[in-house]
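Q: Sequence in, structure out?
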Amino acid sequence: MLNIKVLKALNGDSIIISYGDDRLHYILVDGGRGKLCFHQLCKFIDEIKEKKGKIDLLVLTHIDSDHIDGILRLFSNQDFDFSIIEQMWFNFGERLFNSLQIDGLYKKINLYERDTKISWRQGEDLEEILQRTGIIRKLPIVSPGCHFVGGAKLTVLSPNVEILKEFADKDDEECARTTHIAYCCDYEKSVTELHEKEFEGIVSLTNRSSIAFLFEFSGKKIIASG
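A: Exactly. Output:
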């Protein structure tokens, strides 16, 4: 059995992969944003509790607000039961760069002084919450890498170590760009306005550092990316 449910996450992403033979396993990819998406996330959590199940893996692909917001809202709830989550993938924070020291790529930086930057501040908030929970957090999640979760094979496609190192080296530049994107989005513009606007093919390091993986189970394959 394999089922994919895409939540109504406004301009973001939130995907539930459920699968299994003997029992159901769950992988949650990102938390989206908006009231409707958050309501659906809460309903999903309640359904798992009723079944006495667990989320085998929570993947937060990157820290952009339209991916992290729903997860941060869930975790900020005082009644949230963190034991429902077996493990989490989240490439962010001091623990990430400490882990990269093994390969000689550690660079002492402070990601958190720029607290006016929306996505970076949310990343910091989530990092602080995770330090108080018992969720197993594997670091770093990089390509090439292969993991097995509930009988499924997950092959990491991105990022690689070099991208994560670049992500650390250029955090000042990326923070400024993240702020610009967050406040100056074009979601409210008409199709005509978008057509007349000159396309800027710029992919931020935040997106380039996003976790993407190939999910394989029972002969079926899915590419999940943020």
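The CA atoms of residues 156 and 223 lie 10 Å apart.
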